[in-house]
Amino acid sequence: MTQKVAVLGTGKIGEALLSGMIRGGWAPADLLVTARRPERAEQLRARYGVEAVSNAEAAKSADTLILTVKPQDMGTLLDELASHVPADRLVISGAAGIPTAFVEERLAAGTPVVRVMTNTPALVDEAMSVISAGTHATGAHLTRAEEIFSGVGKTLRVPESQQDAATALSGSGPAYFFFLVEAMTDAGILLGLPRDKAHDLIVQAAIGAAVMLRDSGEHPVKLRENVTSPAGTTINAIRELENHGVRAAMLAALEAARDRSRELASGNS
Fold this sequence. Notes:
Number of strands: 8
Order of helices and strands: EHEHEHEHEHEEHEHHHHHH
Protein backbone atom coordinates (compact mmCIF):
# COMPACT_ATOMS: atom_id res chain seq x y z
CA MET A 1 0.00 0.00 0.00
CA THR A 2 1.95 3.01 -1.23
CA GLN A 3 -0.82 5.60 -1.06
CA LYS A 4 -0.26 8.15 1.69
CA VAL A 5 -3.35 8.73 3.83
CA ALA A 6 -3.99 11.55 6.30
CA VAL A 7 -6.58 11.47 9.07
CA LEU A 8 -7.57 15.04 9.93
CA GLY A 9 -9.06 15.88 13.31
CA THR A 10 -8.12 12.56 14.86
CA GLY A 11 -10.58 11.92 17.71
CA LYS A 12 -11.87 8.55 18.92
CA ILE A 13 -13.24 7.42 15.56
CA GLY A 14 -10.23 8.77 13.69
CA GLU A 15 -7.89 6.95 16.04
CA ALA A 16 -9.89 3.73 15.70
CA LEU A 17 -9.59 4.04 11.94
CA LEU A 18 -5.87 4.73 12.17
CA SER A 19 -5.35 1.72 14.43
CA GLY A 20 -7.43 -0.51 12.14
CA MET A 21 -5.46 0.54 9.07
CA ILE A 22 -2.17 -0.34 10.75
CA ARG A 23 -3.52 -3.74 11.82
CA GLY A 24 -4.71 -4.21 8.24
CA GLY A 25 -1.20 -3.78 6.84
CA TRP A 26 -0.76 -0.05 6.27
CA ALA A 27 2.73 1.13 7.13
CA PRO A 28 2.84 3.91 9.74
CA ALA A 29 5.21 5.75 7.39
CA ASP A 30 2.34 6.06 4.91
CA LEU A 31 -0.04 7.58 7.47
CA LEU A 32 -0.34 11.17 8.66
CA VAL A 33 -2.48 12.59 11.45
CA THR A 34 -3.61 16.04 12.50
CA ALA A 35 -5.10 17.08 15.81
CA ARG A 36 -6.31 20.35 17.28
CA ARG A 37 -4.13 20.06 20.40
CA PRO A 38 -0.34 19.55 20.14
CA GLU A 39 -0.36 17.10 23.06
CA ARG A 40 -2.96 14.96 21.27
CA ALA A 41 -0.85 14.95 18.10
CA GLU A 42 2.20 13.89 20.11
CA GLN A 43 0.20 11.13 21.79
CA LEU A 44 -0.82 9.70 18.41
CA ARG A 45 2.74 9.94 17.07
CA ALA A 46 4.13 8.09 20.08
CA ARG A 47 1.39 5.46 20.13
CA TYR A 48 1.33 4.53 16.42
CA GLY A 49 4.62 5.74 14.96
CA VAL A 50 2.85 8.01 12.48
CA GLU A 51 3.82 11.55 11.54
CA ALA A 52 1.76 14.36 13.08
CA VAL A 53 1.48 17.38 10.79
CA SER A 54 -0.64 20.49 10.24
CA ASN A 55 -3.81 20.35 8.17
CA ALA A 56 -2.11 22.28 5.36
CA GLU A 57 0.86 19.88 5.34
CA ALA A 58 -1.48 16.90 5.27
CA ALA A 59 -3.36 18.34 2.29
CA LYS A 60 -0.14 18.87 0.37
CA SER A 61 1.43 15.49 1.16
CA ALA A 62 -1.32 12.86 1.32
CA ASP A 63 -3.09 11.18 -1.59
CA THR A 64 -6.22 10.64 0.50
CA LEU A 65 -7.58 12.98 3.16
CA ILE A 66 -10.06 11.64 5.72
CA LEU A 67 -11.97 14.42 7.46
CA THR A 68 -13.16 13.18 10.86
CA VAL A 69 -14.12 16.48 12.50
CA LYS A 70 -17.59 17.21 13.89
CA PRO A 71 -20.21 18.49 11.42
CA GLN A 72 -20.16 22.00 12.90
CA ASP A 73 -16.38 22.20 12.37
CA MET A 74 -16.37 21.00 8.76
CA GLY A 75 -16.79 24.42 7.15
CA THR A 76 -13.87 25.88 9.08
CA LEU A 77 -11.63 22.93 8.21
CA LEU A 78 -12.50 23.13 4.51
CA ASP A 79 -11.78 26.87 4.47
CA GLU A 80 -8.35 26.08 5.91
CA LEU A 81 -7.71 23.32 3.37
CA ALA A 82 -9.13 24.92 0.23
CA SER A 83 -5.95 26.54 -1.06
CA HIS A 84 -3.82 23.46 -0.32
CA VAL A 85 -5.83 20.54 -1.78
CA PRO A 86 -5.04 19.69 -5.42
CA ALA A 87 -7.98 18.48 -7.48
CA ASP A 88 -6.51 14.97 -7.77
CA ARG A 89 -6.74 14.29 -4.01
CA LEU A 90 -9.41 11.94 -2.73
CA VAL A 91 -11.29 13.59 0.12
CA ILE A 92 -13.34 11.33 2.42
CA SER A 93 -15.84 13.10 4.65
CA GLY A 94 -16.91 11.31 7.83
CA ALA A 95 -19.12 14.04 9.30
CA ALA A 96 -22.77 13.17 9.92
CA GLY A 97 -25.23 15.03 7.74
CA ILE A 98 -22.64 16.79 5.57
CA PRO A 99 -23.33 16.09 1.87
CA THR A 100 -20.55 15.70 -0.67
CA ALA A 101 -21.76 18.86 -2.43
CA PHE A 102 -20.91 20.88 0.70
CA VAL A 103 -17.32 19.63 0.49
CA GLU A 104 -17.03 19.84 -3.30
CA GLU A 105 -18.08 23.47 -3.54
CA ARG A 106 -15.38 24.51 -1.06
CA LEU A 107 -12.52 22.70 -2.81
CA ALA A 108 -10.97 22.84 -6.27
CA ALA A 109 -13.32 22.00 -9.12
CA GLY A 110 -13.36 18.30 -9.90
CA THR A 111 -12.07 17.13 -6.51
CA PRO A 112 -13.35 13.58 -5.86
CA VAL A 113 -15.28 13.37 -2.59
CA VAL A 114 -16.59 10.22 -0.89
CA ARG A 115 -19.00 10.39 2.05
CA VAL A 116 -18.67 7.74 4.76
CA MET A 117 -20.85 7.25 7.83
CA THR A 118 -19.23 4.83 10.24
CA ASN A 119 -20.14 4.12 13.87
CA THR A 120 -18.49 3.64 17.26
CA PRO A 121 -18.06 -0.17 17.01
CA ALA A 122 -15.06 0.86 14.87
CA LEU A 123 -13.34 0.88 18.27
CA VAL A 124 -13.67 -2.93 18.37
CA ASP A 125 -13.40 -3.59 14.60
CA GLU A 126 -17.15 -4.20 14.25
CA ALA A 127 -18.19 -0.98 12.53
CA MET A 128 -20.60 -0.63 9.65
CA SER A 129 -19.29 2.07 7.32
CA VAL A 130 -21.77 3.32 4.72
CA ILE A 131 -20.07 4.72 1.62
CA SER A 132 -21.42 7.07 -1.07
CA ALA A 133 -19.79 8.71 -4.08
CA GLY A 134 -19.84 12.42 -4.76
CA THR A 135 -20.10 13.96 -8.22
CA HIS A 136 -16.49 13.34 -9.25
CA ALA A 137 -15.75 10.12 -7.34
CA THR A 138 -15.20 6.98 -9.42
CA GLY A 139 -15.46 3.31 -8.64
CA ALA A 140 -11.73 3.31 -7.89
CA HIS A 141 -12.25 6.02 -5.28
CA LEU A 142 -15.02 4.01 -3.63
CA THR A 143 -12.77 0.94 -3.61
CA ARG A 144 -10.02 2.94 -1.91
CA ALA A 145 -12.49 4.09 0.76
CA GLU A 146 -13.55 0.47 1.27
CA GLU A 147 -9.92 -0.62 1.65
CA ILE A 148 -9.45 1.95 4.39
CA PHE A 149 -12.67 1.39 6.33
CA SER A 150 -12.70 -2.40 6.03
CA GLY A 151 -9.94 -2.35 8.64
CA VAL A 152 -12.53 -1.51 11.32
CA GLY A 153 -15.50 -3.60 10.17
CA LYS A 154 -17.86 -4.00 7.24
CA THR A 155 -18.61 -1.54 4.45
CA LEU A 156 -21.74 -0.94 2.39
CA ARG A 157 -22.20 1.24 -0.70
CA VAL A 158 -25.43 3.23 -0.94
CA PRO A 159 -26.60 6.19 -3.04
CA GLU A 160 -25.99 9.43 -1.18
CA SER A 161 -29.75 10.02 -1.05
CA GLN A 162 -29.89 7.15 1.48
CA GLN A 163 -27.12 8.48 3.75
CA ASP A 164 -29.42 10.32 6.17
CA ALA A 165 -31.43 7.13 6.67
CA ALA A 166 -28.23 5.12 7.13
CA THR A 167 -27.02 7.66 9.69
CA ALA A 168 -30.25 7.28 11.66
CA LEU A 169 -30.21 3.49 11.47
CA SER A 170 -26.54 2.59 11.66
CA GLY A 171 -24.54 5.66 12.65
CA SER A 172 -26.72 6.26 15.70
CA GLY A 173 -27.75 2.60 15.99
CA PRO A 174 -25.33 1.47 18.70
CA ALA A 175 -26.78 4.10 21.06
CA TYR A 176 -30.23 2.54 20.75
CA PHE A 177 -28.87 -0.84 21.82
CA PHE A 178 -26.96 0.70 24.71
CA PHE A 179 -30.18 2.45 25.77
CA LEU A 180 -32.06 -0.86 25.60
CA VAL A 181 -29.40 -2.67 27.65
CA GLU A 182 -29.54 0.14 30.22
CA ALA A 183 -33.32 -0.22 30.51
CA MET A 184 -33.14 -4.02 30.70
CA THR A 185 -30.46 -3.81 33.39
CA ASP A 186 -32.75 -1.59 35.47
CA ALA A 187 -35.52 -4.12 34.94
CA GLY A 188 -33.23 -6.92 36.11
CA ILE A 189 -32.51 -4.98 39.32
CA LEU A 190 -36.24 -4.43 39.82
CA LEU A 191 -36.71 -8.20 39.49
CA GLY A 192 -34.13 -8.83 42.21
CA LEU A 193 -30.84 -9.41 40.38
CA PRO A 194 -27.60 -7.64 41.30
CA ARG A 195 -26.58 -5.07 38.69
CA ASP A 196 -23.43 -6.91 37.59
CA LYS A 197 -25.29 -10.18 37.04
CA ALA A 198 -28.14 -8.46 35.20
CA HIS A 199 -25.59 -6.74 32.98
CA ASP A 200 -23.76 -9.97 32.15
CA LEU A 201 -27.01 -11.79 31.34
CA ILE A 202 -28.22 -9.06 29.01
CA VAL A 203 -24.91 -8.48 27.23
CA GLN A 204 -24.50 -12.18 26.46
CA ALA A 205 -28.11 -12.39 25.28
CA ALA A 206 -27.43 -9.43 22.96
CA ILE A 207 -24.23 -10.99 21.58
CA GLY A 208 -25.92 -14.34 21.02
CA ALA A 209 -28.94 -12.76 19.34
CA ALA A 210 -26.72 -10.65 17.08
CA VAL A 211 -24.67 -13.66 15.97
CA MET A 212 -27.87 -15.62 15.24
CA LEU A 213 -29.21 -12.73 13.16
CA ARG A 214 -25.94 -12.49 11.24
CA ASP A 215 -25.25 -16.17 10.69
CA SER A 216 -28.58 -18.02 10.57
CA GLY A 217 -30.07 -16.33 7.52
CA GLU A 218 -33.45 -16.38 9.28
CA HIS A 219 -35.84 -13.43 9.37
CA PRO A 220 -35.92 -11.75 12.81
CA VAL A 221 -39.63 -12.57 13.08
CA LYS A 222 -38.83 -16.27 12.71
CA LEU A 223 -36.08 -16.08 15.32
CA ARG A 224 -38.41 -14.29 17.73
CA GLU A 225 -41.17 -16.86 17.12
CA ASN A 226 -38.71 -19.63 18.01
CA VAL A 227 -38.44 -18.13 21.50
CA THR A 228 -42.14 -17.32 21.87
CA SER A 229 -44.02 -20.38 23.10
CA PRO A 230 -47.82 -20.36 23.60
CA ALA A 231 -48.90 -18.72 26.87
CA GLY A 232 -45.26 -18.44 27.90
CA THR A 233 -43.14 -15.74 29.45
CA THR A 234 -41.92 -14.21 26.19
CA ILE A 235 -45.34 -13.59 24.65
CA ASN A 236 -46.44 -11.84 27.83
CA ALA A 237 -43.42 -9.56 27.61
CA ILE A 238 -44.01 -8.92 23.88
CA ARG A 239 -47.63 -7.98 24.63
CA GLU A 240 -46.46 -5.33 27.09
CA LEU A 241 -43.93 -3.97 24.61
CA GLU A 242 -46.71 -3.61 22.03
CA ASN A 243 -49.10 -2.11 24.61
CA HIS A 244 -46.51 0.55 25.42
CA GLY A 245 -45.90 1.41 21.77
CA VAL A 246 -42.25 0.35 21.62
CA ARG A 247 -42.43 -0.38 17.87
CA ALA A 248 -44.04 2.98 17.12
CA ALA A 249 -41.52 4.75 19.37
CA MET A 250 -38.65 3.17 17.44
CA LEU A 251 -40.10 4.31 14.12
CA ALA A 252 -40.52 7.84 15.47
CA ALA A 253 -37.00 7.85 16.94
CA LEU A 254 -35.39 6.86 13.64
CA GLU A 255 -37.39 9.48 11.76
CA ALA A 256 -36.20 12.09 14.28
CA ALA A 257 -32.57 11.03 13.79
CA ARG A 258 -32.99 11.13 10.00
CA ASP A 259 -34.53 14.61 10.19
CA ARG A 260 -31.69 15.85 12.41
CA SER A 261 -29.17 14.57 9.87
CA ARG A 262 -30.97 16.64 7.22
CA GLU A 263 -30.88 19.69 9.49
CA LEU A 264 -27.13 19.32 9.90
CA ALA A 265 -26.80 19.23 6.12
CA SER A 266 -28.72 22.50 5.85
CA GLY A 267 -26.41 24.21 8.35
CA ASN A 268 -28.70 24.20 11.39
CA SER A 269 -26.46 23.55 14.39
